[in-house]
Design a protein that fits this description.
This protein has 127 residues and is an all-beta fold. It is built from no helices and eleven strands. Strands 2, 4, 5, 6, 9, 10 and 11 form a seven-stranded mixed beta sheet that branches. 35% of the residues are buried.
Length: 127
């Protein structure tokens, strides 16, 4: 099993930045893909970014590409999401997730592929 805990959420004005962190632990040696997802009130959860374990490749939703950066420090069992140029529409609960399947056999932003989830951290962007 794998446990994940997010941190770093908060309130920020439009145009500002935040960095989310995800600490993961447990049996992590078989994890090949990790990602960040978000869910706004009244909307379905959507994939934001994903990364191959070890950081070799990254994937982004079109809505955040160029503004968000996903990274990983495998030695420290930490996953990050740097969010720049934040917009009000980025307001959501952000969760990190992990899966044993790789990032290329299925879409890296497909929710159903991820088996382990953190509880989430709230990000609120004001105008």
């Amino acid at each position: 099993q794998v446990q994940l805990v997010e941190s770093g959420g908060g309130s920020v004005q439009a145009g500002g930045s935040l960095r989310l962190s995800c600490s993961y632990y447990g049996y992590v040696y078989s994890i090949y893909c990790m990602g960040w997802f978000r869910q706004a009130p009244g909307k379905e959860r959507e994939g934001v970014a994903a990364i191959v374990a070890g950081g070799a490749s990254t994937y982004y939703a079109d809505s955040v590409k160029g503004r968000f950066t996903i990274s990983q420090d495998d030695a420290k069992n930490m996953l990050y999401l740097q969010m720049n140029s934040l917009k009000p529409e980025d307001t959501a609960m952000y969760s990190c997730a992990a899966r044993y399947s790789d990032c290329v056999s299925a879409s890296p932003l497909t929710i159903s592929e991820y088996a382990y989830w953190g509880r989430g951290t709230q990000v609120t962007v004001s105008s």
